[in-house]
Amino acid sequence: MKTLIIESKYNNKNLITYLTSIFPSLKTSSIYKALRKKDIKLNGKRISQNVTLQSGDKIDVYIVDSELYGVNLQDIKTVYEDENIIVFNKPINLEVVGDFSLTSIKKNNYKFIEPCHRIDRNTTGLVLFAKNQESLDVLLDKFKNKEIEKHYICLCYGIPLRKSDNMEAYLFKDSKKSVVYISDEFKKGYSKILTSYQVINTNKSKKISLLNVTLHTGKTHQIRAHLAHIGLPILGDGKYGSYEINKKFGVHSQLLCSYSLKFNFSDNCGPLNYLNGKEIRLGDIPFTQYL
User: Fold this and answer.
1) What is the C-alpha separation between 255 and 232, in angstroms, rounded?
2) Does residue 53 have a pLDDT over 90?
3) Which domains does the chain have, with CATH numbers?
């Protein structure tokens, strides 16, 4: 059961609009089912209709987590943990931060836990959290100084001309449209991005490639947009990829995974020195079943 207090920005919005805004993966059919069963309470009273909400209203929602979040919370696996950090394997359809996110879910289980970086809602894989303030301060600084190496695995449509490449381009983020644009030349408002990849395997008959991608700059949608810009859209990517190609392969979510984190500290990190040189990774390389 989830208890929600209606914020002023949702004043006079109807229940279904509110719930689908708060839970992007929640289907309207699940809400109607809950209303029929009277599994939703408004200010302590069970309701069966799509009512209009007012600021300060209290909503109790008796819908299972797998329907609310679009993911079974049991699928959130711990990959590594010690007294200072914890690394989770984030499933698809879950934000790293927000009201109902990987962070808010895990805060119920730890006295202190804060994410050190983010990955997209539809990107799976490793997310690093700090379990105390000192570790958080150190790790945020190390991410800023690019002393934590992030590798991603993705399956792309197309065959790269090179087995490996270090790519440089410029990215512009349009926050209103929630999309980014890539340019090979600098333009006003664009930021420089650096992305490199190595080919793991290819299937020339299917025209697909499995890549190990390294982020040297961490801009929004950088991997997805940069690879699409050079003609290698990630399969399942509905924003920068191709609907026709995704449909052809029967892929409905982007095949992009945060696969490994490596700590390359350049100076003394106090209680986190033991992490220097350590790499945390998932066991199996994902998406090989498509090749």
Assistant:
1) 12
2) yes
3) 2-69 (3.10.290.10), 151-258 (3.30.2350.10)
Give the global pTM. Answer: 0.83
At residue 275's C-alpha, the angle toward residues 273 and 277, to 5°, is 105
Separation CA 237–CA 254 (nearest Å): 4
CA neighbor of 287 nearest in space, from 135, 113, 154, 122: 154
Return the closest-CA partner of residue 153 out of 291, 262, 259: 259
pLDDT in tens, 200-232: 999 999 999 999 999 999 899 999 999 999 999
Continuous segment of H or E residues that includes residue 245:
helix 243-249
Which element (helix H / strand E) includes 114?
strand 114-115
Which run of H or E residues covers position 224?
Answer: helix 222-229
Let me know: does 124 contact 92? Beta carbons within 8 Å. yes
Q: CA of 225: how far to CAs of 127, 180, 196, 238, in Å?
A: 21, 7, 13, 11
